[in-house]
Write a structure and sequence with these properties.
Blueprint lengths: L4 H33 L3 H8 L2 H24 L8 H31 E2 L12 E2 L1 H13 L2 H5 L2 H21 L1 H5 L4 H7 L1
Antiparallel strand pairs: 1-2
Amino acid sequence: MSDSRLPLLAGGGVALLLFLELIVGSLLNILQDATIDNDGITGNLFDGFGPSLFYNLLTFVAFGIGIWISLRFVEPVRANDRWLRVIRRGLIATLLGTACVFVLAILQALLGALHVTAYPLVEPLNPTVNGDALMTGLQNAVGSIVSPLIWWAPFAVLATLLVRIRLSTRSLDEPEAATHPASDAETLVSH
């Protein structure tokens, strides 16, 4: 596996971990509600797995994309980086992931405030923007910054630390190539 795939695995791993945590938490809430309220499982099934599940998945993917962009292009992790520097790069990845979540929330606010006629083939297409819905959506977008910054930051920092550990173990596996680099001429002759 090349070093360029490690940031992708880190971002995807964090997104998958957050999604699995949501699924397990939702299942436990459903079971708890079913045992306490005696309403049964089917009454609360769509509370945890309704339309918000898809939006949460998009949010986790946006956070993972931010981590990938940060670790791949903005602040790549190297095998010889000090641990404090790696933690700082993990925090930068958290900030970029949070920025991606914020952009997604703004897009949701804009699309949620857009109103299009119910019958676009019969009535003229006259889209309007609901100002109150837009303001509420933008307030929710600002509120969506808190969760990634506080609750998801440890996952991003841990993923960054794991990338650094993987890079350092890979460099230990290949000590000959690291200590005796071949010249271009030797490489061409050996192949």
